[in-house]
């Protein structure tokens, strides 16, 4: 889109205002209240009461915004200027109750439902992986059962912990049980590491998921994996949920449940770019826990993953116009 009265309001110009100056929004984009309506909204969900191990993902959105100051407005691999193509804005953080998981899930579902009611596509920054369940509930109301691509070291289809059903290890089991998902197009990508028992895998398959392990990505390669994923997804509405621990701890140390043998950040970014053309209706990036990060490695990786997600959605919206 050309500059003009209806052109999207883009990021602060880094040639005029130093990148490190001013309050952080994602990619230095305008706040949602500054533009009124956004085609794509970045939304922080600083909730980590669902974790089973190291806490701290509540600080993920703030760390990702800070790390995103260096992003630039043109995506060369996809030949797209996402922030000029459509209006992208930062919707701030939801004020989620850290002491009451049920209330937190209800708040997320309701407020995300309000955000997307006029067609805004949500791209959420967690927070721990518990938040995927209320996000999928809100998305299901708008889109019906969705294809899901779940990038994660973990299955997150376990049943419960200490009798708790709503945790970061259980969102995709609940979502499948609740009928939120299109059972013909569900894939985990990047899973690895020890499980509790072999039944974890048979249960996961029963819930509808296929698995592309981290080793599969290494052996088969990014292009072959992406081709089989996109074939399975077709033109279904697709939700992408990316647990940053899908990356190897060398590429993402700042997370709560790290597992050796993960994807490189390059593999993940190339997999995302190879999904160009899918009907991506919403996404999240979760489990960034900056207290365990070093030199912002994890927050930088997350900010770039989000940039690719926004670019894929901007391209889809551009095609629909
Ligand atoms: N969703 C994340 N990051 N981790 C889930 C780990 C659950 C478990 O160790 O049982
Ligand atoms: Zn995980
Ligand atoms: Zn997860």
UniProtKB/TrEMBL annotation:
Keyword Metal-binding: yes
Protein origin, superkingdom: Bacteria
Cofactor(s) in the UniProt record: Mn(2+)
UniProt binding sites for Mn(2+): 129, 152, 154, 156, 243, 245
CDD domains the record matches: Agmatinase_PAH
Pfam families: Arginase
Record-linked InterPro entries: Agmatinase-rel, Ureohydrolase, Ureohydrolase_dom_sf, Ureohydrolase_Mn_BS
GO BP term (any one): putrescine biosynthetic process from arginine, via agmatine
Keyword field contains Metal-binding: yes
Family membership noted in the UniProt record: Belongs to the arginase family. Agmatinase subfamily.
Protein name in UniProt: Agmatinase
Lineage: Bacteria, Bacillati, Actinomycetota, Actinomycetes, Nakamurellales
């Amino acid at each position: 889109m050309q500059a003009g009265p209806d052109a999207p309001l883009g990021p602060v110009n880094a040639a005029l205002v130093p990148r490190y100056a001013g309050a952080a929004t994602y990619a230095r984009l305008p706040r949602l209240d500054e533009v009124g309506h956004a085609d794509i909204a970045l939304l922080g969900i600083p909730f980590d009461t669902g974790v089973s191990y190291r806490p701290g993902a509540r600080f993920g959105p703030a760390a990702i915004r800070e790390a995103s100051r260096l992003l630039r407005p043109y995506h060369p691999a996809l030949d797209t200027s996402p922030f000029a193509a459509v209006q992208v804005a930062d919707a701030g953080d939801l004020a989620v109750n850290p002491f009451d998981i049920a209330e937190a899930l209800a708040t997320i579902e309701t407020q995300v439902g309000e955000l997307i009611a006029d067609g805004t596509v949500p791209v959420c920054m967690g927070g721990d992986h518990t938040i995927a369940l209320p996000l999928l509930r809100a998305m299901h109301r708008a889109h019906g059962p969705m294809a899901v691509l779940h990038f994660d070291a973990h299955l997150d289809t376990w049943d419960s912990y200490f009798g708790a059903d709503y945790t970061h290890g259980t969102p995709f089991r609940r979502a499948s049980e609740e009928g939120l998902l299109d059972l013909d197009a569900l894939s985990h990508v990047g899973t690895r590491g020890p499980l509790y028992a072999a039944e974890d895998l048979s249960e996961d398959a029963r819930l509808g998921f296929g698995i592309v392990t981290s080793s599969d990505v290494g052996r088969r390669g990014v292009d072959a994996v992406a081709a089989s994923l996109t074939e399975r997804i077709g033109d279904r509405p697709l939700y992408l949920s990316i647990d940053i621990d899908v990356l190897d701890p060398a590429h993402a140390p700042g997370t709560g449940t790290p597992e050796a043998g993960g994807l490189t950040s390059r593999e993940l970014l190339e997999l995302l770019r190879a999904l160009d053309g899918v009907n991506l209706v919403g996404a999240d990036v979760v489990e960034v826990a900056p207290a365990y990060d070093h030199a912002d490695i994890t927050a930088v990786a997350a900010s770039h993953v989000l940039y690719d997600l926004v670019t894929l959605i901007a391209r889809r919206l551009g095609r629909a116009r």
